[in-house]
Specification:
By secondary structure, the protein is an all-alpha fold. It folds into three domains: 107 residues; 144 residues, Tetratricopeptide repeat domain (Serine Threonine Protein Phosphatase 5, Tetratricopeptide repeat), CATH 1.25.40.10; 75 residues. It has 19 helices and no strands. The longest helix is centred in the N-terminal third of the chain and has 26 residues.
Length: 414
């Protein structure tokens, strides 16, 4: 209400200034001339008084009277012209009133439909930051969100009977050996693949506990992802903490950056969300799972962040398809005997080595195989593959960094 009162007063003041300037402006010259007429008349009366007292000779009085009279006639003519209203030259009230009305209506339309937000109270920046911080501190608990979460509209492949049996065996094995991090990792990934995100999050939480300081940023990002999916897409306090830890360990982690931007956008900090997502778009392949999600939401986030001229970057080239064992392969391998598993690993390594030797491959493919071997506990094989991969990509620092990350996940290097 106070805003509209001030807007009305400012508009009324603008209208008065325009009207007064238009109406009184042409008469300024006439008003000055009328004042001169009065002065000259007083001077003529003064000449007559001086002549009567003998203070002024007759000849001098006549000369002064003639000069003053001449000036009086000129001032009187100027005064009459300034106060006249010749046809087509007088002040027209509709001109300033029309201009004022256009100004007021245009300003109201611009505020209502583009720049403003009618009905909103004052929102100073400091207060918005404090409110956003409070919203972050007041994130609901995971259990509360899961209790009210709606099922996600996601389709999962129907597992085969054999795979279901393997999963039951894996679950039993994890219950019997809860301190085995490899079993918890396998369980978390396969439960997530089946859409059992609550069970996946519990297994991933156990993995983080068992890994301790050795847990990677991706481990925490995966945990946050499972928590968020289990909560129907909502971000709990536990998920927020996991995201912070993921970005602390891996500032460029795509999963953590996307969800952190989403959290910032939902808690009143679109400026932070914009910076996170803009950097992620510029450094992600086109087929990264978060890219279409960000591109759909970025125009609105950019507008809220004040980046009205922002243009979405062109999609990057898709990432080369990864080769190596699938999650089902890993699950199957976990149930094989030691001898059979070793034979399976040697077969995968042999096939991949042969393909890379004949056709070449990407650093992502090498990294995927190293990580998979680490999950299976084949650290010696993972180390051999890592050493070979470093020789292949010796001149590529980015590839070497990716391989080193995979080797850390596999327990090959610290």
């Amino acid at each position: 209400m106070l805003f509209w009162l001030f807007a009305l007063l400012i508009s009324a003041g603008t209208v008065l200034v325009l009207v007064r300037k238009t109406v009184t402006g042409p008469r300024a010259e006439g008003s000055a001339a009328a004042y001169d007429v009065e002065i000259y008349r007083d001077q003529l009366a003064e000449v007559d008084r001086d002549l009567a007292r003998g203070a002024l000779p007759e000849e001098e009085a006549a000369r002064v009277r003639t000069e003053v009279s001449r000036r009086l006639l000129a001032a009187d003519a100027a005064a009459r012209q300034g106060h006249g209203t010749a046809p087509g030259q007088g002040p027209r009230l509709w001109v300033p009133l029309g201009a004022a009305a256009t100004l007021v209506v245009g300003a109201l339309a611009l505020y209502t439909f583009d720049l403003g937000a009618p009905g909103y109270g004052d929102m100073p920046r400091a207060a918005r930051i404090v409110e956003a911080q409070q919203m972050l501190q007041d994130l609901p608990a995971q259990a509360e969100l899961e209790a009210t979460a709606r099922p996600l509209e996601m389709e999962f492949p129907q597992p085969s009977e054999e795979f279901i049996q393997l999963m039951e065996q894996l679950r039993t094995a994890v219950v019997e050996r809860p301190e085995d991090p490899r079993g918890q990792r396998l369980l978390a990934r396969n439960e997530a693949a089946l859409g059992n995100f609550t069970a996946a999050a519990r297994a991933q939480e156990a993995l983080l506990r068992l890994s301790g300081p050795a847990a990677s940023g991706q481990d925490y990002a995966d945990y946050a992802d499972m928590l968020i999916l289990a909560a129907g897409g909502q971000i709990s306090a536990e998920a927020g903490t996991a995201l912070q830890q993921a970005l602390r360990l891996d500032p460029r982690n795509g999963t953590a950056s996307y969800y952190s931007g989403l959290l910032m956008a939902r808690t009143g900090r679109p400026d932070i969300a914009f910076r996170l997502w803009d950097g992620l778009l510029h450094n992600s392949p086109a087929d990264a799972p978060w890219v279409p999600l960000i591109r759909a939401q970025m125009p609105r986030v950019a507008s809220l962040a004040g980046e009205d001229d922002y243009t979405l970057p062109s999609p990057a080239a898709p990432m080369a398809p990864l080769a190596g064992p699938s999650q089902e392969d890993i699950a199957n391998a976990a149930e094989l005997s030691d001898a059979d598993r070793q034979e399976m690993v040697r077969g995968m390594v042999g096939r991949l080595s042969e393909r890379l030797a004949n056709e070449g491959g990407t650093a992502q493919e090498w990294g995927r195989l190293i990580s998979s071997l680490g999950v299976l506990g084949e650290t010696s094989q993972a180390r051999a593959i890592y050493d070979e991969a470093r020789q292949v990509f010796v001149a590529d620092p980015e590839a070497l960094a990716l391989l080193a990350g995979a080797a850390r996940d596999a327990g090959v290097v610290q």
